[in-house]
Every structure is written in C-alpha cells, then in structure tokens.
Amino acid sequence: MDSIPPIDILEALEPGQIEAARTLFQEYADQLGIDLCFQGFEAELAALPGDYVAPRGALLLALVDGAVAGCCALRPLDDVDYANAAEMKRLYVRKAFRGFGLGRRLSEAILESARQMDYDCVLLDTLD
Fold first, then answer.
1. Which range marks the domain in which residue 36 is found?
2. What is the CATH number of the domain that holds 23?
3. Which of 8, 18, 55, 97 has the fewest CB atoms within 10 Å, i.e. is most exposed?
C-alpha cells in the first residue's frame, strides 16, 4: 500500500504564495469551461489577495510533498440575508493531486478559519 505523501495547508501570505494561488485560480477557471466575467474574475485575480486576507478573509494553499496542489479562499459576504456571513470560494485541487483528501482538508481548514474569525455562517455558491 502506498503511503500518502506529506500534506501541508498554509495561508498564502508571501508574494510567491499569492502568485501560486493566482495560477491555481486561473487553472480552476479554465477547467470550468465558462466565462467568470459575471463574477469580476479578472479583477479578482489582479487584486489578489484582495478580500481573502485577515482579519475577515483567508487564502489557503495545499502543498503535497512541497508541491502546490490546491487552494481554497474565504471572504466576507456583506450583501446577503445572513448576518455576519462569509463565503467559501475557489476550492480547487490539481488533477495530479486528487485522491489524497485535499478538498476535504482545505474545506475543513477554511471552515476553521471562519470559526476563528467568529463568522456565524459560511455560504458556498456553486455553478450547477
């Protein structure tokens, strides 16, 4: 049985980490096969980390054996019917790294970030 390689989840704070997140966001968008212009995606990419920074946001990277493998982000969501809400965004794992449970690990880590920021709820919007 193959062992699972070392997995690290970290907050993207350094310029190289932000650039890695930008690359992952673009890969995510490319694989969707739809234009995300309605979400202001190009402006979001240009402004990273943008809304995804503390104290009200987070931008996480997953590393597998040191290689950038996935990402997940959290941002405040002020224009909804829920008070003190956040939105989980851009959960993506590169195809080569799927099957290690990274999506679950990133989701759990972003929800823990939301708890630490005292959000009352976290929303997730899907394109389906």
1. 7-124
2. 3.40.630.30
3. 55
